[in-house]
Amino acid sequence: MIELITGAIYEALFEVPGALVRWIFTKNKSFYKLLKEDSRWNVILSLLVIFILGIFIYNT
Amino acid sequence: MKVERIIFIVSIVLFLIKLNFTGKIINNLFVIYFSILSLIYLFGSNFILRVKKYNNIFFSTLAGMIYSIVLIGTIFKLMNWDNFSIYTKTGSFLNLILLLMLIIFYYKNEGEKKEYYKSIIKRSSIFMALLIILFFYKYR
């Protein structure tokens, strides 16, 4: 149970933003597949997304 | 992971230098290396801490978050920035709870799982020693 909760938090914070970026720039691939394949790129891209959004929100 | 190990060793050396000396170059390097290490632990803990194929997502994410709090606390205390006590207190408290939990799980499990818990205990104990040194540190 506790693994399910932390897994959901981990996916929402560190994988979904990066997978969304990859989903915009790729064709003919489902969102579910992008979440499962090459998950380290999801983490790196979500780091960038959180940084940019954080700076943007802080300045406004 | 190789990158984590290199940055970890360099940042520990910088920590030991920063305890005794202060200067522009040392301060910059210290802040940059520690913040990079805290980011690596926050985002990549699930890749760094896994042993072969075994990974417990609860302990990995929890450990990564706690280590990032501890590392930011060390930056704030050694640079004498404001409100460092929040980070050091919460970091040391959570790290102690994590260590106790991990020691219980270490003696209950066997094989690949035991190696996994051992790898986290190593890092946690190093950070605990770092926090104990910080407790006796006074900014001059």
Written overview of the protein:
The complex is a heterodimer of chains A (60) and B (140). Chain A has 60 residues and is mostly helical. Chain A has one domain. Chain A is built from three helices and no strands. In chain A, α1 (2-25) crosses α3 (39-59). The longest helix of chain A has 24 residues, at 2-25. The radius of gyration of chain A is 13 Å and the shape is flat. Chain B has 140 residues and is mainly α. The longest helix of chain B has 25 residues, at 24-48. The mean pLDDT of chain B is 90. Chain B has five helices and no strands. Chains A and B meet through α1 and α3 of A and α2 and α3 of B.
Quick tags:
heterodimer, A: 60 residues, mainly alpha, B: 140 residues
Topology of chain A as a string of helices (H) and strands (E): HHH
In percent, how helical is the residue content of chain B? over 70%
Q: Which class do the helix and strand fractions of chain B yield?
A: mainly alpha
Give the structural class of chain A: mainly alpha
Instruction: Compute the average pLDDT of chain A.
Output: 89
Beta content of chain A comes to: under 5%
Count of structural domains of chain A: 1
Percent helix of chain A, as a range, is over 70%
Low-pLDDT parts of chain A are none
Q: Could you give the count of β-strands of chain A? A: 0
Count of domains of chain B: 1
Number of helices of chain B: 5
Summarize the helix and strand pattern of chain B as letters: HHHHH
Instruction: Average the pLDDT over all residues of chain B and give the rounded result.
Output: 90
Distance from N terminus to C terminus of chain A (CA atoms, Å) equals 39 Å
| Largest interface: pair, residues per side | A-B, 12 and 10 residues
Sheet of most strands of chain B: none
Radius of gyration of chain B: 15 Å
Low-confidence stretches of chain B: none
Indicate the overall shape of chain B: globular
Instruction: Compute the CA-based radius of gyration of chain A.
Output: 13 Å
